[in-house]
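Quick look at the format.
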Amino acid sequence: MGTSQSVNPSVKNNPKWGDLSRAISSASQSITISDNQLHGIMRHFVNAVGGSGAGHGRSSTFGRAGVKRVQRFMSFVSDVQTNGFSEALRTIGISDISQLTINEFINYLLAHCSEGNFNLDETAANSAIDELLKYLLNNTESIDSIENLFQQANADTQHEWLCYFFASYIMEFSNELFSTRIFENDGDRIKTFHEIRDYVQRSLATLNRNQNLQHVNWHSEQGTTIIKNLQTEILEIWSPE
């Protein structure tokens, strides 16, 4: 987890943020955290960030930065499939791939997708993109294998990538609460974090996949709307409005 930004004062002073902290602290004392406890933690999270309306950018605390970052990532995926890998690389500042390493590619794409690091929302969104790229590319062995990965990503695969990003985004944003001050030891923090992360990803696995993501113009308002709708649908799992 890479988030180091302090929580926005408007969040820190929100009693609902305290409710979330207490729910996490209580759950960490359990040998196994129940799904009811995990659901309660996420319900407190959604309430603390302003409800599911945060998915459409109605919260100044959470949601806006994630939409921008992941839309840039999906636009790159679309560019690879529509215009070819070399042309897509030019859009992120790479003109020569003859000596390009995997780490260099990751850094270019991360820089392209990230913008600003001025508040917790931006920091969490940047870290979530970093987590997504590591998840996708840690086992790749060549630039050619990266090209194949993006070229062959069908609608189901792209949906999985989006859900992985949003799970990371939620957890990175919550990082301020996953600090040693509410845990007896770091082992409790790590165990609790992994149980919550696993629960979030299990919850997202059931989301509707009917949208044909391969025919979306990710550079347009259509792409923005689809991402906002998905983010809202995710938050509504724990706080329907």
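Next, a different chain entirely:
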Amino acid sequence: MDTTQQFDQSVPEQHAAQVEQKAATSLKDHPGVYIPPPLFYIAFFYFSVLLEHDFPLGVDFLRRHNQQFIGWVLLFIGAGIGLITLIQFIISRNSIVTIKSAHSLQTKGVYKYSRNPLYVSLFFLYFGAVIFWGNWWSIIIAPFLVMVMKLYVIKREEKYLKRRFGKAYKNYKKSVRRWF
């Protein structure tokens, strides 16, 4: 076999190996959270509404005269935290999409107070809606929502950030709490 034939045969093999390596690298360069986290909050809230419809608890504790006001306040706080966090993501050119890689470690702004300000925002929105409508089922199933977020979303994100940013993330994790 002459040199030209050897070269022609090795080029496709090298190209295939490069493509495979690139695909493997890009697959690993994100947290692996394929379900957008806000969908969990929406699904749990919708499920609680169905539970309330089919199995009403009949508890009027949340149905007070100032209930809607408190609900609006929590919704407003959640929307504010979420908006500030989204603006910070846009400025840093990072993506909130959990199947894309992070370009930089967020440690400033709202990230000085919480490692997960978007999820804090979603909790305020969730509980604001819960109080606004007075749905006890939402409160009863909230620990399961926290568990799903912690085990499926946050655990994967933290593992990814540790792998991606190493010691910088470990130091950040030591100095800033997960929620507040």
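The longest helix spans residues 136-165.

See the schema section for token definitions.
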